[in-house]
Amino acid sequence: MSSEPGAAAGARIRALRTERGLSLSALAAAAGIGKGSLSELESGRRNPTLDTLYAVAGPLGVPLALLVDFREGSVVADEGFETVLLHTERTATTTSEVWLLRVDAGVTRSSPAHQAGVVEQLVVLAGSCRVEYADQVVDLGAGDHASWPADRPHRYTAGEHADLRAVNVIMTPT
């Protein structure tokens, strides 16, 4: 769920979908979510989950931060996972998002592929995690860093003994 009203995120999704000439059915299919769920989200009757926001951001070709209106301090959470938008930097060629993550011990955060050319980075502040992307597996502890192409599915799992605290930077070509 998001800290902002679901209606605002839903209105942005509807506007982006319309701009791109996508039907409700086409976006729902591309995002892998139900047409009814997308309709409820767009109309403000349903608050978006992080999974849903990621699912629609990819097919819309936009960074997640756009769906929360680039508002620093925006919180998006699912069970066992919370992320806070710390900063967004937009240039003529790239949108960079900086998120603070909290992932409960043992929880896995799976992300669908972002648009082509997106690169994601994770810096572990506390705890540990395993990052999996393409055919790579990287184990990280406090102070470690990983970077990977995020235009394919990827995931990270917090270590079993402590919550993960990390900074996640997502760089999206514009």
UniProtKB/TrEMBL annotation:
Annotated InterPro entries: Cro/C1-type_HTH, Cupin_2, Lambda_DNA-bd_dom_sf, RmlC-like_jellyroll, RmlC_Cupin_sf, TransReg_Diox_bact_type
Pfam families on file: Cupin_2, HTH_3
Coiled coil regions in record: none
This protein's record includes keyword DNA-binding: yes
Keyword DNA-binding among UniProt keywords: yes
SMART domains: HTH_XRE (SM00530)
Keywords: DNA-binding
Domain HTH cro/C1-type positions: 13-67
Protein name: XRE family transcriptional regulator
